[in-house]
From TrEMBL:
EC number: 7.2.2.10
Region spans: Disordered: 290-329, 1144-1201
Family: Belongs to the cation transport ATPase (P-type) (TC 3.A.3) family. Type IIB subfamily.
Cross-referenced NCBIfam families: ATPase-IIB_Ca, ATPase_P-type
The protein's name: Calcium-transporting ATPase
Organism whose genome encodes this protein: Denticeps clupeoides (denticle herring)
Length: 1201
């Protein structure tokens, strides 16, 4: 171990710098140094700087004291070496968003039709065209022919502006969320000898950073001192093996990599755009001005040192990936491809054939969220139906016109009349397109976005920081929660309450006088030295408060014991600083213990202190200290007796038992420190302590809420099974006299694995339904359990699993789960990166709130669907039959656009922002296969559609008699709007308005007004729509084909609308189970429905809907796809950003879909073309770091020069 106290400069104030703040090395020197790896780097450091101390001297920093923190000095460092910040890509301007919204195919068709109609309306034919030209004799009306075209164009503009505004506000929200996540990122550095936490963006070159297990490194640095340090560099190199760091072999630490084990200190040598992650960002054109950074054509950049990718090695990795080849003239090609769900489907032969010099970056993708899958599928079905209806409408209208004009009336086709005929055809075409516009529910993606964005904002207040939008909705479907014990169910404030020292079991902490002084001395030394020096107990923040525990909570409990025994740990640590520790075996999940070796002061041999889980350490003890402080033999039978008499009673009280032990190595040569099994044996047991971690008072209530809501809570913990069982009973996870399983990791593995040691799903299916507690479990066990439950097909519904985790090793399980919750306080960076939602208060009750919000999102979308589909069904049928019978749609194009788009947008706002209520937790979860549209909803949709159609057709064919007005049927081409058709339009809108109130309930409740006063948005939308409708009818005139109505006619319209509410009560009274003919719609996709050949390609089940989509060539569906893609792209980028450290993590433009990314087979696969190597692609350089070798590191490589 390097002894860093040797020769560092005494201080580091700027004044000492002889070249007036000039540092002994430049940015480029340090950049070149950081590009080297392992041996090369060590040689370079020795040749150029002497050693790491030399670098510290040149950077004017002290390896022990750190920087002075003087603002002038920090500013100089910013100027010389840059800030630890990567400038984000510029957000899209509002005009760019408008341009994107204009790309919608349906809108383009409408625009073209409107322009043709506009152009033709100025052509006045000679009188010979007769009746076909309609009322052309009346000049005034003929002049007004242009109004319809103009009105359509105008409404298209309104729609585009609304869409663009929504996109813009959504992007703003995402950026806000991102910056909030970034601000919370802090890192530990030493300044003026004090250990402090500063925001990642404030780290400067020359800072001494403390790194520990679970950190995500925020800048590049060189190790000064380290204990057993292992780093996962897969985010940069694509190799999943952990790299062991040491001063002699490989001291280089790179930004964006994860610390998987150990601890240490490093001197920061590169930040921001000069760090390894920053360089990759720059190559991708993310940093600053894109134009400067663009890689010039033909210019070759040697990036091989950046990303060594051992493709042979990667090929043998367990998780195989599909690659997609793309070649661009700029020489850098990026394809973000999903990890396919079936493992091992590798197209190696293909890869060998197409051996191009282009390598790829893979980003792992979770399956598309349950809701998105169902919506995609439903929208495809609706789109197909709409297309057929609109095509039929156009064909029937044209045929009728042609047969009537040229067949029945025997008119010749006159050349000069052609524009008139074309004008008719254009009008028919516009009606057809309008039917289509109404049929495709483009309000859906908007409703989803609004609902999710609204929920995410509100969830912040409930201590849920949502990182991936769709996690919020998936949570509503959760059927199982696998929770950690420590910190989530318990308070994570640990105290030693019992101890077994010197053959005596003390039920409370003993007085120091009672103990043998020699034993006490050994215990104090063992606890003080054999723990992370960053763990401390600080005085309370306010008078009368509890002391603050900093660092590892178990170690805090042991330090608390030292203080209770009236001793102090700090003097011991001051006497033996970290540099003097000879070797440290840090705690990890497989060891479940920690040991520290010291060299004896007289140089004769070594002493090792150990602590860890009692049953593990006691197995390695051969002696134990008796009451007089003398070691005596400790045989297996003594151990069994101790387990029975001491450890089990402690565990049954819900205590975690920790054993403290030591070992002396006599002076005959140096032991083989790498042979851990040999080193960790022959220990002498000093004491066993019982640590209490009280259950959070609010947890039992929260768990019973979950159980009422049909969610199974399972506890997965590394603790002893008795401790786990006791806590599970206190929490209410286990109830007396119930048939449930509590297993230890070892038993669990015996039950689920076959003779070859492979996990078998059938065996797992026998275990998990009854399993409630899994104790002494490893992270692999947790991952196996989560994967097993998700993949299982037993039971009526597929399971949706949420998992909580805080440790680095929880990464794989958090990623695999449908929703991963990371702890905001106790969680490591690795866990937070792998998670979907961060619990800012580490509390289980916040998970219950997340369930409530998730269910609310689901219900909001169902409410909106129920409303939207009623509008669609009625409008399509009215337009279609009206057109076929009367040659003209009773609802004009502009009116349809008003009904469809404006009411869609407003209704999605109204229905998607209903606040959740506790009653949401009184029903079972929907699960994966539950259809979006239940039979109750189908009954409501069809029931209301029947009422509306009957009313509208009655008014259409007999309304003129009822209201005693002129009929509006069969009017010529440019005739003025009639009262008759205005009433039809007005009644239609009134019925929709009142039906919106009905749509607030989807489970057949009678009181549709319940809680309506709490939702201000809903009330204002309904009233606002009503006010707008009055303006349109009374003052809309020709553009809206409306004419002002009298007060009587208005009252009739409102009265018919109120009839909707009464009719709704009638429908509710009909029991759904009697209506056998009703079908559900909007199912998730089951495996059986996918053709076998598609499955073989390793397709995600939900993406099958997209394949249907492509086969159906449904162009206008792009609208829905676009917003979904935006959400998915955001989500891909948020998942993909694992490798980019805190301040460097950037939110790419959310809606930069059309220019930069070509949607491949599902919105989440973004192929980025060379022209747009912008921030969007930046993230590709940083595929998710896998937290253990069970998820193989992603390949990441570049074209060779």
């Amino acid at each position: 171990m390097a002894n860093n106290t040797a020769d560092h400069p005494s201080g580091n104030s700027v004044a000492e710098g002889n070249h007036d703040g000039d540092f002994g090395c430049t940015v480029m020197d340090l950049r070149e140094l950081m590009e080297l790896r392992s041996g090369e780097a060590v040689t370079k450091i020795q040749n150029t700087y002497g050693d790491v101390q030399g670098i510290c001297r040149r950077l004017k920093t002290s390896p022990v004291e750190g920087l002075s923190g003087n603002p002038v000095d920090l500013e100089k460092r910013h100027t010389a070496f840059g800030k630890n910040f990567i400038p984000p890509k510029k957000a899209k301007t509002f005009l760019q968003l408008v341009w994107e919204a204009l790309q919608d195919v349906t809108l383009i068709i409408l625009e073209i039709a409107a322009i043709i109609s506009l152009g033709l309306s100025f052509y006045h034919p000679p009188g010979v065209c007769g009746q076909a030209s309609g009322g052309a004799e009346d000049e005034g009306e003929a002049q007004a022919g242009w109004i319809e075209g103009a009105a359509i164009l105008f409404s298209v503009i309104i729609v585009v502006l609304v869409t663009a505004f929504n996109d813009w506000s959504k992007e703003k929200q995402f950026r806000g969320l991102q910056s909030r996540i970034e601000q919370e990122q802090k890192f530990t550095v030493i300044r003026k000898g004090q250990v402090i936490q500063i925001p990642v963006a404030e780290i400067v070159v020359g800072d001494i950073a403390q790194i520990k297990y679970g950190d995500l490194l925020p800048a590049d640095g060189i190790m000064i001192q380290g204990n057993d340090l292992k780093i996962d560099e897969s985010s940069l190199t694509g190799e999943s093996d952990q790299v062991r760091k040491s001063l002699e072999k490989d001291p280089m630490l790179l930004s964006g990599t994860h610390v998987m084990e150990g601890s240490g200190r490093m001197v920061v040598t590169a930040v921001g755009l000069n760090s390894q992650t920053g360089i990759i960002f720059t190559l991708l054109g993310a940093g600053g001005d894109d134009e400067e950074k663009k890689v010039k054509k033909g210019e070759r950049i040697d990036t091989s040192h950046l990303l060594r990718s051992n493709s042979e090695d990667a090929r043998q990795k367990k998780k195989k990936k599909h690659f997609s080849h793309s070649k661009t003239q700029d020489g850098i090609a990026l394809e973000i491809q999903p990890l396919k769900s079936e493992e091992g489907v590798e197209s190696e032969e293909k890869e060998e054939k197409e051996d191009k010099p282009v390598k790829k970056v893979n980003v792992t993708k979770k399956e598309k969220s349950v809701l998105q899958g169902k919506l995609t599928r439903l929208a495809v079905q609706i789109g197909k139906a709409g297309l057929i209806m609109s095509a039929l409408t156009v064909i029937i209208l044209i045929l009728y016109f042609v047969i009537d004009t040229f067949g029945v009336q025997q008119r010749p086709w006159l050349k000069e009349c052609t524009p008139i005929y074309i004008q008719y055809f254009v009008k028919f075409f516009i009606i057809g397109v309008t039917v289509l516009v109404v049929a495709v529910p483009e309000g859906l993606p908007l409703a989803v976005t609004i609902s999710l964005a609204y929920s995410v904002k509100k969830m912040m207040k409930d201590n849920n920081l949502v990182r991936h939008l769709d996690a919020c909705e998936t949570m509503g479907n959760a059927t199982a929660i696998c929770s950690d014990k420590t910190g989530t169910l318990t308070m994570n404030r640990m105290t030693v309450v019992q101890a077994y020292i010197g053959d005596t079991h003390y039920r409370t902490v003993p007085e120091p006088e009672v103990l043998n002084p020699q034993t006490l001395e050994l215990m104090v030394n063992c606890i003080s030295i054999n723990s992370a020096y960053t763990t401390k107990i600080l005085p309370p923040e306010r008078e009368g408060g509890l002391p603050r525990h900093v660092g590892n909570k178990t170690e805090c409990a042991l330090l608390g014991l030292v203080l209770e025994l009236k001793r102090d740990y700090q003097p011991v640590r001051d006497e033996i600083p970290e540099e003097k520790l000879y070797k440290v075996y840090t705690f990890n999940s497989s060891r479940k213990s920690m040991s520290t070796v010291l060299k004896n002061t007289d140089g004769s041999g070594y002493r090792m202190y150990s602590k860890g889980a009692s049953e593990i350490i006691l197995r390695k003890c051969s002696r134990i200290l008796d009451a007089s402080g003398q070691p005596r033999a400790f045989k297996p039978k003594d151990r069994d007796e101790m387990v029975r008499k001491v450890i089990e009673p402690m565990a049954c009280d819900g205590l975690r038992t920790i054993c403290i032990a030591m070992r002396e190595f006599a002076g005959e040569g140096e032991p083989d420190w790498d042979n851990e099994a040999e080193i960790l044996s022959e220990l002498t047991c000093l004491a066993v302590v019982g640590i209490e971690d009280p259950v959070r008072p609010e947890v039992p209530e929260a768990i019973s809420k979950c159980q009422r809501a049909g969610i199974t809570v399972r506890m997965v913990t590394g603790d002893n099974i008795n401790t786990a069982r006791a806590i599970a009973t206190k929490c209410g996870i286990l109830h007396p006299n119930e048939d449930f399983l509590c297993l230890e990791g070892k038993q669990f593995n015996q039950q689920i694995r076959n003779d070859k040691g492979e996990v078998e799903q059938e065996r797992l299916d026998k275990v998990w339904p009854k399993l409630r507690v899994l104790a002494r479990s490893s992270p692999t066990d947790k991952h196996t359990l989560v994967k097993g439950i998700i993949d299982s097909t037993v039971g009526e519904t597929r399971q949706v699993v949420a998992v909580t985790g805080d440790g680095t090793n929880d990464g794989p399980a958090l990623k695999k789960a449908d929703v991963g919750f990371a702890m905001g306080i106790a969680g490591t960076d690795v866990a937070k990166e792998a998670s979907d939602i961060i619990l800012t208060d580490d509390n289980f009750t916040s998970i219950v709130k997340a369930v409530m919000w998730g269910r609310n999102v689901y219900d909001s979308i169902s409410k909106f669907l129920q409303f939207q589909l009623t509008v669609n069904v009625v409008a399509v049928i009215v337009a279609f039959t009206g057109a076929c019978i009367t040659q003209d749609s009773p609802l004009k194009a502009v009116q349809m656009l008003w009904v469809n788009l404006i009411m869609d947008t407003l209704a999605s706002l109204a229905l998607a922002t209903e606040p959740p209520t506790e009653s949401l937790l009184l029903r079972k979860p929907y699960g994966r296969n539950k259809p979006l549209i239940s039979r109750t909803m189908m009954k409501n949709i069809l029931g209301h559609a029947v009422y509306q159609l009957v009313i509208i057709f009655t008014l259409l064919f007999a309304g003129e008699k009822f209201f005693d007005i002129d009929s509006g049927r069969n009017t010529p081409l440019h005739s003025p709007p009639s009262e008759h058709y205005t009433i039809v339009f007005n009644v239609f809108v009134m019925m929709q308005l009142f039906n919106e109130i009905n749509a607030r309930k989807i489970h057949g409740e009678r009181n549709v007004f319940e809680g309506i006063h709490r939702n201000l948005i809903f009330c204002s939308v309904v009233l606002g729509t009503f006010a707008l409708q009055i303006i349109i009818v009374q003052f809309g005139g020709k553009p809206f084909s409306c004419t002002a109505l009298t007060i009587d006619q208005w009252l009739w319209c409102v009265f018919i609308g109120v009839g909707e509410l009464l009719w709704g009560q009638l429908i509710t009274a009909i029991p759904t189970h009697r209506l056998k003919f009703l079908k559900e719609a909007g199912h998730g996709i089951t495996k059986e429905e996918i053709p076998v050949e598609d499955l073989n390609e390793g397709t995600d089940e939900i993406d099958h809907a997209e394949m249907e989509l492509r086969r159906g060539q449904i162009l206008w569906f792009r609208g829905l796809n676009r917003i979904q893609t935006q959400m998915d792209v955001v989500y891909t980028f948020q998942t993909g950003q694992t490798a980019v450290p805190g301040a460097l993590r950037r939110q790419p433009s959310v809606v930069s879909q059309h220019n930069d990314a070509k949607t491949v087979s599902s919105p989440t696969h973004v192929g980025i073309s060379s022209s747009s190597l912008s921030a969007n692609s930046a993230v590709a350089a940083a595929p998710p770091a896998s937290a253990s070798s069970s998820t193989a590191g992603s390949e990441c490589a570049w074209p060779r020069p």
